[in-house]
Amino acid sequence: MRWNDFLYFRKEERRGILLLLLLIVCTLIINILLSNKKSSSVIIARTDSLQREFEDFRRSLQTTGGEEYPYNNHQYKKSRDVRHPGLLSDSGKLYANAGKRTYFTPAYHSTVKLAAGETISLNETDTAIWKKVPGIGSAYAARIVKYRRLLGGFYSKKQLQEVYGIDEELYAKILPFVVQDDNFSRLNVNELPFDSLLRHPYIDYKQAKVIIDLRRRKGRVESIEELGLLDEFTAEDLARLKPYLVF
Fold this sequence. Notes:
There is one protein chain. By secondary structure, the protein is α/β, with parallel strands linked by helices. The chain has helices at 11-62, 127-130, 138-151, 168-174, 194-199, 205-218, 224-228, 235-241, and strands spanning 68-71, 74-79, 94-98, 100-106, 120-121, 178-179, 187-188, 245-246. The chain has a 4-stranded antiparallel sheet.
């Protein structure tokens, strides 16, 4: 028997083999078509889902009625004005485009200023109260309170001009709203240690040292006139210090 006898098929067998191959090919084609259809349906489903989320987002932006929206740690309110969409302005306003063009404006809490005739105490320690004075904002209020603490209190309204940034024009503006008082601390020249004397803005290192030396030599300082005999103190220094010193 030759080898090609094994590859010989009768007519009926050849028909069966061809039919089997045809069935296999059809099966493969059907599987490919079903696979493509399933993938397309998944893509369409995902696309529909994203589209619905986007539409929900757009509808939320179209909501009106003065609702508040948190943004960048501030509260923003919708306004009816029409602005360019999708922009954040220099003033902090957020603009959005969603059907109607709307924008958000920040809701700031402004400090109510004093009216003419209203006043505060010169030695007021609350920065919120100082901010009520026309011309005084957060920075100036903080500087005034800090300098007052270092001095132990103001004895004269003119000392406000020593606060950094308060020039003659601003001083003249705030002067009518401030009432002078005697609520300030005195320095006991014969009892305070070196560090406590040096902490006062009107006493420098050499002046504090000479006071301690004078106390060590004499036991105590008798008067401000005695300090005037020292080279470390000028007439201007003594004039500023006089209200604060006790002997």
